[in-house]
Structure formats: structure tokens, C-alpha cells
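Continuing the series of single-chain predictions for the mutant panel. This is the parent chain; the variants come on the following pages.
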Amino acid sequence: MFSCVQLLTALCVIGILIDFTAGLRLVEVRIPNYVIKGATAQLECLYDLDGEALYSVKWYKDGNEFYRYVPRDNPPAQTFRLPGVAVDLHNSSDAIVNLHNVNLQSAGRFRCEVSGEAPSFQTVTEHGDMVVVSLPDQGPPKIIGGRPRYQIGDWVRINCTAGRSKPAVNLSWFVNGEPAEPQKLRKFETIVSGREGLETSVLGLQFRVEQQHFRNGDMKLKCVAALSTFYWRSNEESVEGDRPQKAPVLESRESDSAFASNSRADPVQASKTDSLLMARAPSALLLLALATAATLAGGGVILSWPASMHSKAGARVNRDSVRNIVVDLANGNASKDKVKVKDKRVQLELLPAAKQKLQLFLRQLRRSASDASSAAAAAAVAASAQRRQMLLTAR
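Parent structure:
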């Protein structure tokens, strides 16, 4: 008899446990971790009745009820006023609740509670936290304290400041695309301001510049501001390394000295030099022509000698005579056609073709000398104009 009672009791307990196990269960509660201020948040509470009847679905924020859904009520859904919570009834049901125009007060812990009908009145519950984000109000982070150029051995001391947000954004530094070493970072306390308690993040970067920090002569410093997976902004500065100044390469010593000098005597000296060259040019050209003719050994020059002088001694006299001709012409003591050499007159005759070529050569040389004189005069005028301009500027 006693054994039968125990057996029946055990069977009843097992049946009850099976009923509870196979009854109402909560499948999933979906609450967004982050919602941007002013957006819409959707809360989901998915359950499985497993044959039971639904009594109610209730939503709480920080322990305070703000939404209730009872199928047998009319209307089945109703809301309760709560700061920061605005329920969109037209788009809400037993499984979904939509909150529109969320603000910073909407953040908190949300809990869903599902209850079955009698006789069990089984209840299941689950919760999740939601953070409302106020994005930075000043655009990308700002870098302050930097310089346009750095030399090896200089100290870099710069700060990155993000705009006001809620919560504070995470800041990080990168040097040439690589994360900055922790010992180079300077952390500051978060600044809280305003009625809503917006937060400002500041992160400093400090290190001594080394050769390795420059790549192709530049160093890139980037600050990144991030918040979860929906906000990422950056700001980057590219600074140059001071390069040693190289001395300018002079293409020509003459041209460099002519344009670099500021002395008043320069144009005068240049004009004197040009005049001297032009004065000596005709004699030099004539000497060059005669020397060329003498070197040709009779090809373009014919010297008429007495027959008795066509000998070794005559050849020596021939060479001496040509040399004396050149000397006399250089000193202006003889004419172009006849020259007195040791009391003997030597008739110098040029063949027509040689004479024509020589005259052409002389004309070309004179033209070159004239062009050089014109260029020198133009350079002198330009230098004088440049000095006048410098004097006017100085005044």
C-alpha cells in the first residue's frame, strides 16, 4: 500500500516537471547595444508558448514598466509614461516594441517579461542594456601643437581633441601608419560639460624625432576617433623634415660673377674690356691671316725672290722674311701687299681663290667680334637696370 502511494506521488511530480519543461520558454531578447541619438530603437522579445495561452508581455526600463500587452484587453497594448521613452504604438505588438526619437535619457537596462495563463501562470524574463550615443558635434578630431617642419632631435608634442560626445570616443595615434607606442602617449582626463553631460576626449603624443620617423622626407601623424562600429573619423598631418641647404651650382663663373656683383664699377670695367678687345681685333685678325698663309708653304702665298736665293740660305731668308712681315704688320710699319725685309722688298701676292677665302674668313671674325660687343653692351645695360631697380626697392 505504501509503495503504491510513493509511486503515484513520483509520477505526479514527474508530470508537473514535464509540463513546466515543455511549457512557455523565452527564445531570444534582442536589444540594440548602441543607438544614435534621434534614431529609432527596436526591442524584440521572442518566446514559445508550446501549447499554453499567453497572459501578458511586459517591458521595463531600469525596473519601471513602460509597455504592456494583454491579448484579452481592448486595446491589448498600453504604455506608461517614463522619461526618455516614447513608444510607437502603431508599430508595436506582443513581440516587438519600437521607440522613436531616442535621447540620452533613453539609455538603460531593458527587460522583457512573458507570462502564461492559468493554471500555471508561468513567467520567463530576460534583459539587455542599451546605450544612446551622441556623436561628436565638431566633425573629425583636431590636432593642435604641431609644426610644419621638424629636425632630427626635435620633440614632437601634439594633442588630439575630439568633439563633445556621449559616451566619450576612443582616441588613438598613428605615426606613418603604425600605432604609436604606449610610452609615447599622454592621457588626459575626460572633460564633461553641458546639461546632458557631454564628454570630450583628449590624447597627447610626445616623442623625440629620429631618422626612422621620416619616409621620403615626410612624417605622417594621424589621430583616429572611434566609437564602437558605427563611428570612425580621423585627421592626419604630414610634416616635412628640414633638409640641409645645398650651395647653388654655378653653370658659368663668368655669368655668375657678372650678375652677382652689385658694384657700380662693373659695367665700366666691362665696357673698357670690350673696347680693348675691339681695338685689338683687326690687328689680331690680320696676324692670324698671315700666319695661316705662311704655314701653307706656298699653297696660298707666293713670295718672289731672286733666283740666287733659291737655296738653303734662301729658304732660311724666306722663313725669316715671312716672320718679319708678320712683325711689321703687327706694329703697323708695313702695308698689306709690300713689306721691306732687310733692305729687300718682297712682293707678297695672294692667289685669287686664297684671297677670297681669306677675306671671307676675316669678315666672319669681324662679325663675331661685333656680336660679342653687342652682347656685352646689352649685359651692361641689363646690369645697370637691375641695380636701379634694387636701389628703388631699397628706398
